[in-house]
Amino acid sequence: MTMTDWVLSVIFAIPLAFICGSVAWAASSAPRDRRSPVSRRHLARGAGLCVAGTVVIALTALATREDVHYDDFGSVMTTLAGMLGGLILLLGLGPFVPWLLRAAERHTVRLPGPLRLTTHRLSDRRGRTAAGVAITMTGTAVTVATMIIASGVTATDRAGYVPQARSGALRVKIFTAERGPAARAALQRELPAVPLIDRYRANGLLYVDVPGPYRDYRSHIGDQVLLRYLTADPATPYDEGTAVMITSDDIGATSVGLRYSPTVTGSSLTGKVFPAITVKAPGPGVEGVFVPAKAIQNLGLRPEPDEFIVDPSLHRTSPAEQERISDRLGDDATVYVERGFQAPTGWIPFAAATALLALGGALVATWPAPSGSRSRRVLLRVGARSCSSARRLIASRTAFLAACGTVPGVAAGCLIGLTLVWPMTAPFDWDPAPRPDFVVPWPPIAVLAAGLPMLTVLITAFASPGRGFPDMRAAPRLPIGAEPKPGDRDATT
């Protein structure tokens, strides 16, 4: 196992440990009999952890709300602190699950019979119901927080996205000049009829000075074909002694300055002024200063292959072609196709996995008890005369238990997500732009909150009657609140 695998294992093991701790705490806090309350000591400790976790995530959110600069280490540490606070909050909610179930039992004593059966013996002695509800709660909370954070990160990335080429252009950047011929040959084998555009880099130091307000303009070194691609205009004049400034700014530059050195370790730079013309950039991704390769050679520098470009007006590279080119080039180059901003989707499998975890917890909590158990015997005898009535009874009980985990989970997930989104979108630039507004994905959250109990109801209602109510038509009816004796005729059905 590599060091990266170890780091990833630790990163995923820490949240899993907190979630398992919350579930185990919920199961161990469950009362051992009907008259025993949930331990106040467990509740006090859980409340303390909830307060501590909330304070931590609130402080991290307040520390990163302003648009100030954070270096990589500081931003990572702040984010980890916020995540740790959220996990502490989830851990502290563990003992409150059996307390919620016991409160539901206690406050539904005077309700009508069917509603009383819905909350009859929610917390069993083994803590299975409490553990299942805790799994649903933590899984739902993590899913909701992930959706909110993903929405904020996507909005921030979209606002700060800068295209690297013209739309649809293929860029193959090689790492060293020695790999240039092999990379070109491999690229021509994949795209035999497509002309390639060469972009060079100087073998030494080269800086471009543009008059006017400071802006970091990159240099484009190449020939007339590269100039046509950059300007998207075949009529752009080309001269080996004239630079071309390609920009969307209102700058009428007639000259540009070049500072250069033949060696990368040169302590002194030589300056030279080149005549220049200014043209309007056809779009983002190509702005910069075009310098003819011949002019670079005249300065005593040697142009070296930097990247190969495919003009999108001549050929649009498909995703399949991009994948084949990447496989063929391997580690010799990086392959990039400008397709505009692509929203990240890596969080979707993780959110789907945590949502399935929440569903599994709901099934564990609501799956019918064994046929010989007291709660099952009560369900058999109190008005359960048909499969349809049994399904309705199980559906109401299942929906209630699933909601006991989903509702607190959504609330905790919203709290964690809305606070963690600030450190997760903290700027890294020294001159950060204002953070864009992002939309909280309320519709998907509502679908999760309502869909999880409904899906659990469908699974248990259609799976349980055939297994748990084989002879319900022969079960005698008992008054509401009465329980069968263990020696009854159908006590073990």
Question: Count of DSSP E strands?
Answer: 10
Instruction: Give the H and E element order.
Output: HHHHHHEHEEEHEEEEHEHEHHHHH
**Runs with pLDDT <50, length 5+?**
465-484, 486-493
User: How many strands, which pairing sense, and closed or not: the largest β-sheet?
Assistant: 6 strands, mixed
How does the overall form come out from the CA principal axes?
elongated
Q: Compute the number of helices.
A: 15
Mean pLDDT: 80
Cα distance, first to last residue? 52 Å
Q: What would you call the structural class? A: alpha+beta
Helix content: 40-55%
What report would you give on this structure?
There is one protein chain. With 493 residues, the chain is an alpha+beta fold. 51% of the residues lie in helices and 12% in strands. It has 15 helices and ten strands. The protein has a six-stranded mixed sheet with strand order 3-6-7-5-8-4. A four-stranded antiparallel sheet has the order 2-9-1-10. Strand 6 (255-261) and strand 7 form a beta hairpin. It is elongated, with a radius of gyration of 33 Å. Mean pLDDT is 80; it is low at 465-484 and 486-493.
How are the SSEs placed, and which strands pair?
Blueprint: H1 3-29, H2 40-63, H3 72-92, H4 96-107, H5 113-118, H6 128-159, E1 170-174, H7 180-190, E2 197-202, E3 205-209, E4 219-222, H8 224-231, E5 243-247, E6 255-261, E7 270-280, E8 288-292, H9 293-298, E9 303-310, H10 319-329, E10 333-337, H11 347-366, H12 374-381, H13 387-424, H14 442-463, H15 465-468
Parallel strand pairs: 4-8, 5-7
Antiparallel strand pairs: 1-9, 1-10, 2-9, 3-6, 5-8, 6-7
